[in-house]
Amino acid sequence: MKISVVIPVRDDAAMLAECLAALAGQSRAPDEVVVVDNGSYDDSGEVARRFGARVVYEPERGIWAAAATGFDAASGDLLARCDADSRPGVDWIERLERAMAANPAAVAVTGPGRFYDLALPWRLLADLLYMRAYFWSTHGALANTPLFGSDFAIRASTWRQVRGEVHRHDPEVHDDLDLSYHLDPAWTVLYDRRIAVGISARPLRDAAGMRRRVRRAVHTIRIHGSEGRPTPRWRRRILGRSQ
After folding, report:
1. For the stretch 91-121, what's the b/e string if a residue is b when 16 or more beta carbons lie within 10 angstroms of its beta carbon?
2. In the predicted model, what is the mean pLDDT of residues 98-109?
3. Residue 241: its pLDDT value, please?
4. 15 near 49, Cβ under 8 Å?
5. Using CB atoms within 10 A of its CB, is residue 35 exposed (0-12), middle (13-18) or buried (19+)?
6. How many other CB atoms are there within 10 angstroms of residue 6's CB atom?
7. Burial status of residue 180 (CB atoms within 10 A of its CB: 0-12, 13-18, 19 or more)
8. Are the C-beta atoms of 135 and 144 separated by less than 8 Å?
9. Taken in order 12, 18, 21, 25, is the CA torsion positive or negative?
10. Which tens digit of pLDDT belongs to each residue from 182-208?
Protein backbone atom coordinates (compact mmCIF):
# COMPACT_ATOMS: atom_id res chain seq x y z
CA MET A 1 0.00 0.00 0.00
CA LYS A 2 1.45 3.35 -1.04
CA ILE A 3 0.81 6.08 1.53
CA SER A 4 0.84 9.83 0.84
CA VAL A 5 0.71 12.44 3.59
CA VAL A 6 -0.99 15.74 2.69
CA ILE A 7 -0.21 18.90 4.69
CA PRO A 8 -1.78 22.26 3.82
CA VAL A 9 0.23 25.24 5.06
CA ARG A 10 0.20 29.02 5.01
CA ASP A 11 2.88 31.06 6.72
CA ASP A 12 3.72 28.40 9.29
CA ALA A 13 7.28 27.44 8.37
CA ALA A 14 8.61 26.83 11.89
CA MET A 15 5.74 24.52 12.85
CA LEU A 16 5.94 22.79 9.48
CA ALA A 17 9.61 21.98 10.04
CA GLU A 18 8.77 20.20 13.30
CA CYS A 19 5.94 18.27 11.66
CA LEU A 20 8.14 17.16 8.75
CA ALA A 21 10.90 16.16 11.18
CA ALA A 22 8.37 13.93 12.97
CA LEU A 23 7.33 12.38 9.67
CA ALA A 24 10.98 11.76 8.78
CA GLY A 25 11.34 9.67 11.95
CA GLN A 26 8.37 7.36 11.34
CA SER A 27 8.75 3.63 11.96
CA ARG A 28 7.03 3.16 8.60
CA ALA A 29 8.10 5.98 6.32
CA PRO A 30 5.45 7.64 4.13
CA ASP A 31 5.94 6.99 0.44
CA GLU A 32 5.20 10.62 -0.36
CA VAL A 33 4.70 13.88 1.53
CA VAL A 34 2.70 16.54 -0.31
CA VAL A 35 2.87 20.03 1.20
CA VAL A 36 0.29 22.41 -0.25
CA ASP A 37 1.51 26.01 -0.06
CA ASN A 38 -1.65 28.09 0.27
CA GLY A 39 -0.11 31.45 -0.65
CA SER A 40 2.56 31.69 2.04
CA TYR A 41 4.66 34.82 2.43
CA ASP A 42 7.25 33.03 4.55
CA ASP A 43 9.60 30.20 3.54
CA SER A 44 7.15 27.33 4.13
CA GLY A 45 7.77 26.02 0.62
CA GLU A 46 11.53 26.06 1.06
CA VAL A 47 11.22 24.25 4.39
CA ALA A 48 9.11 21.56 2.73
CA ARG A 49 11.61 21.06 -0.08
CA ARG A 50 14.46 20.87 2.41
CA PHE A 51 12.75 17.86 3.99
CA GLY A 52 12.21 16.23 0.60
CA ALA A 53 8.48 16.94 0.40
CA ARG A 54 6.71 17.57 -2.86
CA VAL A 55 5.38 21.14 -2.91
CA VAL A 56 2.09 21.94 -4.64
CA TYR A 57 0.75 25.50 -4.87
CA GLU A 58 -2.90 26.41 -4.33
CA PRO A 59 -3.52 30.17 -4.68
CA GLU A 60 -7.19 29.97 -3.63
CA ARG A 61 -7.15 30.80 0.06
CA GLY A 62 -8.79 28.31 2.38
CA ILE A 63 -7.76 25.13 4.15
CA TRP A 64 -10.30 23.02 2.23
CA ALA A 65 -9.14 24.34 -1.14
CA ALA A 66 -5.56 23.54 -0.15
CA ALA A 67 -6.25 20.10 1.33
CA ALA A 68 -8.40 19.04 -1.63
CA THR A 69 -5.66 20.11 -4.04
CA GLY A 70 -3.23 17.98 -2.07
CA PHE A 71 -5.50 14.95 -2.21
CA ASP A 72 -5.93 15.43 -5.95
CA ALA A 73 -2.16 15.65 -6.45
CA ALA A 74 -1.19 12.74 -4.18
CA SER A 75 -0.30 9.43 -5.81
CA GLY A 76 -0.84 7.11 -2.84
CA ASP A 77 -3.46 4.42 -2.33
CA LEU A 78 -4.03 5.82 1.16
CA LEU A 79 -4.13 9.59 1.71
CA ALA A 80 -3.15 10.62 5.23
CA ARG A 81 -3.84 14.14 6.45
CA CYS A 82 -2.33 16.29 9.15
CA ASP A 83 -1.59 19.99 9.69
CA ALA A 84 1.61 21.99 9.87
CA ASP A 85 1.32 22.19 13.66
CA SER A 86 0.66 18.43 14.02
CA ARG A 87 3.15 16.22 15.84
CA PRO A 88 2.54 12.64 14.72
CA GLY A 89 3.98 9.93 16.94
CA VAL A 90 6.72 7.69 15.59
CA ASP A 91 4.25 4.92 14.68
CA TRP A 92 1.48 7.11 13.20
CA ILE A 93 1.84 5.92 9.60
CA GLU A 94 2.34 2.33 10.74
CA ARG A 95 -0.89 2.39 12.76
CA LEU A 96 -2.88 3.97 9.94
CA GLU A 97 -1.68 1.33 7.51
CA ARG A 98 -2.30 -1.52 9.95
CA ALA A 99 -5.86 -0.35 10.70
CA MET A 100 -6.81 -0.08 7.03
CA ALA A 101 -5.12 -3.35 6.05
CA ALA A 102 -6.99 -5.19 8.82
CA ASN A 103 -10.32 -3.70 7.71
CA PRO A 104 -10.50 -3.82 3.90
CA ALA A 105 -14.14 -2.64 3.93
CA ALA A 106 -13.20 0.58 5.74
CA VAL A 107 -12.97 3.74 3.64
CA ALA A 108 -11.16 5.86 6.23
CA VAL A 109 -9.62 5.86 9.69
CA THR A 110 -9.28 8.69 12.17
CA GLY A 111 -8.01 9.33 15.67
CA PRO A 112 -7.97 12.12 18.24
CA GLY A 113 -5.67 15.08 18.71
CA ARG A 114 -3.71 15.54 21.92
CA PHE A 115 -2.81 19.10 22.94
CA TYR A 116 0.94 19.10 23.43
CA ASP A 117 1.29 22.72 24.57
CA LEU A 118 -1.18 22.78 27.48
CA ALA A 119 -0.49 22.03 31.13
CA LEU A 120 -1.94 18.68 32.24
CA PRO A 121 -5.15 19.92 33.93
CA TRP A 122 -6.03 22.11 30.93
CA ARG A 123 -5.06 19.33 28.54
CA LEU A 124 -7.51 16.94 30.18
CA LEU A 125 -10.26 19.56 30.18
CA ALA A 126 -9.67 20.42 26.51
CA ASP A 127 -9.71 16.74 25.61
CA LEU A 128 -13.10 16.31 27.28
CA LEU A 129 -14.83 19.53 26.22
CA TYR A 130 -13.30 19.96 22.76
CA MET A 131 -11.96 16.73 21.32
CA ARG A 132 -14.36 14.16 22.76
CA ALA A 133 -17.30 16.53 22.41
CA TYR A 134 -16.55 16.82 18.68
CA PHE A 135 -16.56 13.06 18.13
CA TRP A 136 -19.61 12.41 20.33
CA SER A 137 -21.84 15.18 18.97
CA THR A 138 -20.98 14.83 15.30
CA HIS A 139 -21.30 11.04 15.36
CA GLY A 140 -24.95 11.47 16.24
CA ALA A 141 -25.49 14.02 13.49
CA LEU A 142 -23.61 12.10 10.81
CA ALA A 143 -24.71 8.56 11.71
CA ASN A 144 -21.05 7.67 11.30
CA THR A 145 -17.64 8.40 12.72
CA PRO A 146 -16.50 11.94 11.85
CA LEU A 147 -13.02 12.59 10.53
CA PHE A 148 -10.69 14.81 12.54
CA GLY A 149 -8.79 17.07 10.16
CA SER A 150 -5.39 16.81 11.81
CA ASP A 151 -5.43 13.03 12.05
CA PHE A 152 -7.04 10.81 9.44
CA ALA A 153 -6.43 8.75 6.33
CA ILE A 154 -8.84 8.05 3.47
CA ARG A 155 -8.54 5.59 0.63
CA ALA A 156 -7.68 7.33 -2.64
CA SER A 157 -10.49 5.43 -4.35
CA THR A 158 -12.98 6.88 -1.85
CA TRP A 159 -11.63 10.39 -2.31
CA ARG A 160 -12.13 10.07 -6.07
CA GLN A 161 -15.77 9.12 -5.44
CA VAL A 162 -16.56 12.23 -3.39
CA ARG A 163 -14.13 14.92 -4.52
CA GLY A 164 -16.63 16.38 -6.99
CA GLU A 165 -19.25 16.77 -4.24
CA VAL A 166 -17.29 18.47 -1.44
CA HIS A 167 -17.48 22.23 -0.89
CA ARG A 168 -13.80 22.90 -1.49
CA HIS A 169 -14.39 26.45 -2.76
CA ASP A 170 -16.34 27.61 0.31
CA PRO A 171 -13.85 29.16 2.78
CA GLU A 172 -16.47 29.10 5.56
CA VAL A 173 -16.69 25.30 5.55
CA HIS A 174 -14.92 23.01 8.01
CA ASP A 175 -13.03 20.70 5.66
CA ASP A 176 -13.07 17.60 7.87
CA LEU A 177 -16.76 17.92 8.73
CA ASP A 178 -17.68 18.57 5.11
CA LEU A 179 -15.76 15.51 3.94
CA SER A 180 -17.42 13.46 6.68
CA TYR A 181 -20.84 14.49 5.39
CA HIS A 182 -19.95 13.18 1.94
CA LEU A 183 -19.01 9.72 3.21
CA ASP A 184 -22.05 7.46 2.95
CA PRO A 185 -23.37 6.54 6.44
CA ALA A 186 -23.36 2.89 5.33
CA TRP A 187 -19.59 3.05 4.74
CA THR A 188 -17.20 2.03 7.50
CA VAL A 189 -15.11 4.81 9.04
CA LEU A 190 -12.79 3.57 11.78
CA TYR A 191 -11.94 5.40 14.99
CA ASP A 192 -8.84 4.36 16.90
CA ARG A 193 -7.85 6.36 19.97
CA ARG A 194 -4.35 4.88 19.76
CA ILE A 195 -3.83 6.71 16.47
CA ALA A 196 -3.37 10.04 18.21
CA VAL A 197 -1.54 13.08 16.91
CA GLY A 198 -0.13 15.96 18.91
CA ILE A 199 -1.84 19.23 18.02
CA SER A 200 -1.37 22.86 19.00
CA ALA A 201 -3.83 24.56 21.33
CA ARG A 202 -3.56 27.81 19.38
CA PRO A 203 -7.28 27.75 18.39
CA LEU A 204 -8.34 27.49 22.04
CA ARG A 205 -6.39 30.60 23.04
CA ASP A 206 -8.10 32.87 20.51
CA ALA A 207 -11.68 33.83 21.41
CA ALA A 208 -12.34 35.26 17.96
CA GLY A 209 -10.93 32.12 16.40
CA MET A 210 -13.21 29.91 18.49
CA ARG A 211 -16.26 31.97 17.49
CA ARG A 212 -15.21 31.59 13.87
CA ARG A 213 -14.92 27.82 14.29
CA VAL A 214 -18.40 27.57 15.79
CA ARG A 215 -19.82 29.76 13.02
CA ARG A 216 -18.20 27.59 10.37
CA ALA A 217 -19.48 24.42 12.00
CA VAL A 218 -23.05 25.76 11.91
CA HIS A 219 -22.56 26.83 8.29
CA THR A 220 -21.18 23.42 7.32
CA ILE A 221 -24.17 21.65 8.84
CA ARG A 222 -26.64 24.08 7.23
CA ILE A 223 -25.36 23.78 3.66
CA HIS A 224 -25.98 20.02 3.62
CA GLY A 225 -29.71 20.64 3.87
CA SER A 226 -32.33 17.97 4.42
CA GLU A 227 -30.10 15.16 3.16
CA GLY A 228 -27.62 15.99 5.90
CA ARG A 229 -30.16 15.67 8.71
CA PRO A 230 -29.60 12.85 11.21
CA THR A 231 -32.84 10.93 10.55
CA PRO A 232 -32.27 10.10 6.85
CA ARG A 233 -28.61 9.45 7.53
CA TRP A 234 -29.37 6.98 10.32
CA ARG A 235 -31.97 5.33 8.10
CA ARG A 236 -29.37 4.97 5.37
CA ARG A 237 -26.85 3.56 7.85
CA ILE A 238 -29.27 0.95 9.20
CA LEU A 239 -30.78 -0.08 5.87
CA GLY A 240 -27.52 0.11 3.95
CA ARG A 241 -25.66 -2.13 6.36
CA SER A 242 -28.50 -4.63 6.59
CA GLN A 243 -28.53 -5.29 2.85
Report:
1. ebbbbbbebbeeeeebbbbbbbbbbeebeee
2. 97
3. 64
4. no
5. buried
6. 26
7. buried
8. no
9. negative
10. 999 999 999 999 999 999 888 777 777
Report DSSP letters for 167-198, one per residue.
-TT-TTS-HHHHHHHTS-TTSEEEE-TTS-EE
Distance of CA 214 to the CA centre of its chain: 17
How remote is the C-alpha of 101 from its chain's centroid? 19
Identify the residue with better confidence: 126 or 39. Answer: 39
Q: What is the CA radius of gyration of the chain?
A: 17
Average pLDDT on 63-82 reads 97
Alpha helices in 103-132 (DSSP H): 120-126
Residue whose C-alpha is closest to residue 134's, from 217, 38, 54, 208 = 217
Please provide the CATH number assigned to the domain covering 3-242: 3.90.550.10
Q: Is 126 helix (H, G, I), strand (E, B) or coil?
A: helix
| Run of H or E including 152 | strand 152-155
- For residue 81, the model assigns a pLDDT of 97
Contact 8, 83 (CB under 8 A): yes
